[in-house]
Amino acid sequence: MTVAYVIAAPCIGVKDKSCAAVCPVECIHEGTVEVDGVTYDQLFVDGSECIDCGLCQPECPADAVFSSEDLPGKWKHFIQINNEFFKSGIRV
To answer: What is the topology classification, in CATH, of domain 5-88?
Structure first.
């Protein structure tokens, strides 16, 4: 799945929903997924619903939302984590 925006490590355990509140298509979902033995409890962007508007990014107080192109190298694996969350089909 291609994702326009990715929510990375600063969101883990924080899950401030300011980003979700401004999303016009409600593509940001809260949940938990385990990838390679690590559990990620955070918000995730559904790439199949996201319209790439960018409204979520400036609203995040944890600075955890990035365009996939601007995602820092140390957090590139959050693209896979995001995709795994939506493959699991589990949403809160």
So the answer is: Alpha-Beta Plaits (3.30.70)
Q: What is the DSSP string of 34-71?
A: EETTEEEEEEEE-TTT------HHHH-TT--EEETTT-
The pLDDT tens digits of the residues spanning 70-90 come to 999 999 999 999 999 998 765
Dihedrals phi, psi of 72, to nearest 5 degrees: -55, 145
Instruction: Tell me the whole-structure pTM to 2 decimals.
Output: 0.92
Place of tokens 């995001």: 82
SS3 content of the chain, % helix, strand, coil (to 5): 30, 25, 50
- Cβ-contact 13, 41 below 8 angstroms: yes
**Which residue carries 């990035």 as its tokens?**
66
Q: What is the pLDDT of residues 30-67, one digit of tens each?
A: 999 999 999 999 999 999 999 999 999 999 999 999 99
